[in-house]
Design a protein that fits this description.
By secondary structure, this protein is an alpha+beta fold. Strands 1-2-3-4-5-6-8-7 form an 8-stranded mixed beta sheet, covered by helices on one side. Helices cover about 25% and strands about 35% of the residues. The chain starts with 6 loop residues before the first strand and ends in a 5-residue tail after the last strand. The chain has a domain of about 120 residues: Gcn5-related N-acetyltransferase (GNAT) (Aminopeptidase, 3-Layer(aba) Sandwich), CATH 3.40.630.
Length: about 180
């Protein structure tokens, strides 16, 4: 079982992701072409695959992976993680999936990202958080720039998304309290 803490921000609660999240809602997100357009999901996801994935999350105590819930009604709207983490070099790889499209455009992704990054810098002692994002995913690129990520690199025609090869931006944010 993950040792992640339950965290809070103004409008959101972050609970450790585990096998209890093997739900029809989560499965629908994984199979929603709009939600997973830029994710590494290549075929329809099955309930057994989701259960196997979540069982693996349960067993990985070093994984920082949370389900994002609205405070007002406890609705699960997405997930956020830092994985893998390289403790020696002090960095982790960021990922977020906002699954509930009806909650889009309300600033929840920025709020969640800021809270988890703050936690990783202050509580986990990370000095840097990295991410990879498809260059054409402009809403994500704009979000990451808004919260302080800077481009560090570009992988040309790196990944196949929507039957076309796309550039991948490598971005990072540094812990301002770390030398």
């Amino acid at each position: 079982m993950s040792l992640n803490k339950i965290l809070h921000s103004e409008r959101l609660v972050y609970r450790p992701l585990n096998s209890a999240y093997c739900t029809e809602t989560y499965l629908q997100w994984l199979n929603d072409e709009e939600v997973n357009r830029y994710l590494e999901i290549f075929e329809p996801y099955t309930r057994d695959q989701l259960k196997s994935f979540l069982d693996g999350v349960d067993k990985n105590e070093s994984l920082l992976f949370w389900a994002i819930h609205l405070k007002e009604n406890d609705k699960h709207i997405g997930n956020i993680k830092i994985d893998p983490i390289n403790r020696y070099h002090g960095y982790g790889e960021y990922g977020i999936m906002m699954g509930d499209r009806s909650e889009g455009g309300k600033g929840y992704a920025a709020e969640a990202s800021n809270r988890i990054i703050e936690y990783c810098f202050k509580e986990e002692g990370l000095r840097k958080i990295n991410l990879g994002v498809v260059e054409g995913n402009t809403s994500a690129v704009n979000l990451y720039k808004k919260i302080g990520f800077q481009q560090e690199g570009l992988y040309k025609k790196h990944g196949l998304y929507n039957h076309q090869y796309h550039n991948l931006l490598r971005m990072a944010i540094f812990n301002p309290d770390h030398e």
